[in-house]
Structure to design on (194 residues):
């Protein structure tokens, strides 16, 4: 049933708690690039800003996924897609799955930073739910450049709702983005030397 965590909001998403993370020298590695033999990148956090099929196992087999990703310094929560053209039930499901995995990993003692994403304005009703205020959050800039106005509208709404202490931003931010941005180069996160 996956009902083991405290929930919040209309949709009953598991709550992702605020956690401390030293933001000096933040580096990320893609979940698609991790390896069981990797010893050189353990100081990095794992991101999930790749195609969903590469990390469906985080929800379907969370313990096994944690064995794969848990040795790294911290984890971003999975970034299940929230495309504007998706039906609302699919977007709600994506948010719920991401929150549940984050809560599960936090419960296992891992540092997990919630990834925040949004679709159209109608997704604002649920996509910022169940993240404690003043959390460090993560966002990805991949694919956002095509619709700057809508992205910034959602971004500013996220700032109002969550009031994040810091935002780990994978990719180049827009100049108009306010907040304590910690920018991480996307290409470097995918070009891992093992």
């Amino acid at each position: 049933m996956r009902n083991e965590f405290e929930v919040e909001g209309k949709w009953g998403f598991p709550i992702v708690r605020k956690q401390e993370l030293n933001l000096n020298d933040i580096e990320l590695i893609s979940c698609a690039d991790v390896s069981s033999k990797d010893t050189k990148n353990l100081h990095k956090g794992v991101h999930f800003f790749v195609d969903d099929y590469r990390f469906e196992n985080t929800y379907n087999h969370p313990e096994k996924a944690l064995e794969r990703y848990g040795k790294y310094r911290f984890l971003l929560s999975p970034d299940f897609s929230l495309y504007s053209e998706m039906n609302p039930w699919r977007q709600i499901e994506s948010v719920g799955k991401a929150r549940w995995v984050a809560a599960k990993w936090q419960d296992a003692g891992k540092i997990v930073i919630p990834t925040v994403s949004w679709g159209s304005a109608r997704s604002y009703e649920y996509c910022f739910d169940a993240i404690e205020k003043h959390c460090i959050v993560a966002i990805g800039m991949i694919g956002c450049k095509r619709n700057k106005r809508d992205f910034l509208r959602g971004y500013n709404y996220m700032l109002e709702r969550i009031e994040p202490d810091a935002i780990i931003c994978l990719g180049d931010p827009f100049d108009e983005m306010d907040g304590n941005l910690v920018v991480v180069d996307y290409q470097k996160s995918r070009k891992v030397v093992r």
The first helix runs from residue 57 to 60. The chain has one domain: 25-190. The CA atoms of residues 107 and 186 lie 28 Å apart. The longest strand covers residues 136-140.
